[in-house]
Amino acid sequence: MPARLAKSNTTGELYCLGHLIQATIAHYRATKDLRLLNALTPYVDTIINLYGPNKQPCWSEHPEIEMALVELYRTTGKKEYLNFAHFLLDEVDYDKIDSQHEIDFGHYFSGRPFTSLGEISGHAVCVLYRCCGAAGIYLETGDRDMWRALITLWEDVTQHKMYVTGGAGSRSSDEAIGEAYELPNERGYAETCAAIANVMWNWRLLQAGGKTRFADIMELALYNGALSGVSIDGDKYFCWNPHRSRYDPALERYGENGGDLLTLKKEKGLSLNVRQSYYRTPCCIPNIQRMIALLPGICIARAKRESGFIWTSSLA
Q1: Separation CA 193–CA 166 (nearest Å)
Q2: Cα(11)–Cα(15) distance, rounded to whole angstroms?
Q3: Selection from 169, 229, 171, 225 nearest residue 200 by Cα
Q4: SS3 assignment, position 177
Q5: What phi-psi label fits residue 52: left (phi over 0), alpha (psi between -120 and 50 degrees) or beta?
Q6: CA-to-CA distance for 68 and 310, rounded, in angstroms?
Q7: N or C: which end of the chain has fewer CB within 10 A?
Q8: pLDDT for 43-70, tens place per residue?
Q9: Does residue 308 have a pLDDT over 50?
Q10: Is residue 302 pLDDT above 80, yes or no?
Q11: Rounded to whole angstroms, how far apart are CA atoms 240 and 275?
C-alpha cells in the first residue's frame, strides 16, 4: 500500500506506482491496447478511495506519482486522478500531523503544501520531480498560486543551487541540494536523474510560459548534465556526474568486481570518475533511455509551442 504516516516510513510504493502508470500510458498510446490500462486503473482507484481528504493520511515519500496522475487524467478524463495529485502536492501538511517527528519530510521535499514553499532543498530528484508534478497541475488548472511557487523555486535553483551543467544536488552523502552557492566540484553529486528531472521540469514550464529561459535551462541540463551520464558507446553510465575527476584504475576494477561505487562515493565524497554498466540503485540507466526516447516528442512540442499551440500531453 502507499507510503503512509507511520513509524519507520521507508517505503516507496507511490513512487513505483507512478512509474507503472507512466509505463502503462506509454504502452496504451503505442499500441491502443487497453488491457494493461484497464488492469491498472482499478488499483489506482482503490488508492484514491482509501487515502486523501477525510480518509487515511497519505504522502508521497519520493515524489513521482503526481506527474503520473496528471498524465492518467489526460488519458482517461477522470478528474479524480488530477484531484488526488493536487491533494498530494498542495493539501498534505505535516505541521498538522502528530507523527511528523518520525519522518524526514524535508529530505523528500514533501509533506507540505507546494504553494507554501519558497526555497529549494532536500533530495535533488525528489525536489525536481515534485516540481514536474506541480507544473503539470498548473497546465491543467491554471492555478496562479501554483505558478508563483513554481517560478519562485525555479529562480532559487537556477540562480543559486545549480551547476553550470544544469546538474543539481551538491551533497553526495544524501544526494541533496545544498545551500546557496554550495556547489563543490569534487564532492558534488549532480545525479543523472536530477539533470533529467531538470529537463522535464523546464519542458513543462516552457509549455506553460513559452519563455526562452526555460528552453535554455532545458537544453543546458540535457546536453551537459544528462548526456554526461552515459558513455559514447552507450553501455556504461554515471549515477553521479563529477565536475572534477581523479581517475584511478583500481576503482574501475573495484566496480567491475562487484564493488558498490555508489556507496563508496557517499562515504568518501570523491568524484570516482568511473562509469559502470549497472548500479544497485538502477534508476539513472533506464531514465537515460527514457529521456533519449522522449527527445523527438520534446522537439516537436517545443516547435508547436513556439507556433502558438500548447501541447500538454507528455510522459516525461
Answers
A1: 12
A2: 9
A3: 225
A4: strand
A5: left
A6: 19
A7: N
A8: 999 999 998 888 888 888 889 999 999 9
A9: no
A10: no
A11: 9
